[in-house]
Amino acid sequence: MTDINKRRVRVKVPASTANLGPGFDTLGMALDLYAWIDMSVSDETRITLHGDQMNGVPADKSNLIYEVAQLVFKRAGVEIPELDIAMYSDIPLTRGLGSSASAIVGALTAANALIGDKFTKDELFQIATELEKHPDNVGASLFGGIVVAFWDGKRAEYIRVEPHERLDVLVAIPHFQLSTEKARGVLPREQSLENAVFNVGHSSVLVAAFCTGRLDMIRVAMKDALHQPYRAPLVPGLAGILAEATDHGALGVALSGAGPTILTLVDRDSDRKNELESFMRGKLRAEGIEATLLWLKPDREGVAAQVLAPEEQGCSLLEFVKGETLG
Ligand code: HSE
């Protein structure tokens, strides 16, 4: 074991989509869009943030990565007040792609690796859920694939489901931010029994469809009555896309997490991918919304950490990420 003061860890953590329509605060899926974090013990705290997605993120001790790492050390009874942290992210902030969950999971995993993996993955899941207050995004970023989870305020429980090999994902990421706080703020505190039954039924059938490979059932099962109808006014174009995307080649469609990103599941072998892209872009443009459309795949691995060998520590995070993303 290397001396902790000489250890440098590198973590790769995926983005995620939450809810998948009816599974409000319950379903999550990891996506192959990533953030990377390097962390080591230092004499003085240095936080280096790379990439356009990091604009406006604090680079002092109020940084989320630093704060979460300190929480891990505190719970482990270890004192490491000064850290050298570097982060690069391709995950857009406050767009419904789980950027804060990725940061939390990445920081927990990096700090845990730095102190020799004192916590199990399940313990990290419990801490991450306490911080996020719902297990959907953090579960997906931790475990990869599709995660079905609940949190009772004390413990989070989950089962991971392997995504079907033919599942592709098209996301439309609007060029405006929508905070989770605002998107939760528009939700009614009370719901009818009909809505509750609607969502239990749809979410259950959706999970069963994922488990049994019934891609044909995603279209009807991926519908929601608990949050999307109330959030639709916050995302111009969403209502039309939810209503019609499956007529343009999508297997199913949902608001990604708290939005504003809109997510469609698409059969990898579909010959209607261009049609779906034009439809989504057209619907958003008609409302004056510009968006970036990205084709993604489910991430199957979840967060991964490596302790860098001394000879690997010479390669900066940025050089490493360039090597990874350029193949
Ligand atoms: N399930 C959460 C929501 C995800 O929809 O508000 C956002 O982080």
UniProtKB/TrEMBL annotation:
It comes from Paenibacillus validus. This is Homoserine kinase. Pfam families: GHMP_kinases_C (PF08544), GHMP_kinases_N (PF00288). It is found in: Cytoplasm. Residues 207-277 form the GHMP kinase C-terminal domain. Catalyzes the ATP-dependent phosphorylation of L-homoserine to L-homoserine phosphate. PROSITE patterns: GHMP_KINASES_ATP. One of its GO terms (molecular function) is homoserine kinase activity. ATP binds at P92, L93, T94, R95, G96, L97, G98, S99, S100, A101, S102. Its EC number is 2.7.1.39. Residues 63-145 form the GHMP kinase N-terminal domain. The keyword Glycosyltransferase does not apply. Its main location: cytoplasm. Pathway: Amino-acid biosynthesis; L-threonine biosynthesis; L-threonine from L-aspartate: step 4/5. Belongs to the GHMP kinase family. Homoserine kinase subfamily. One of its GO terms (cellular component) is cytoplasm. GO terms for biological process: threonine biosynthetic process. It catalyses: L-homoserine + ATP = O-phospho-L-homoserine + ADP + H(+). Keywords: Amino-acid biosynthesis, ATP-binding, Cytoplasm, Kinase, Nucleotide-binding, Threonine biosynthesis, Transferase. The keyword Chloroplast does not apply.
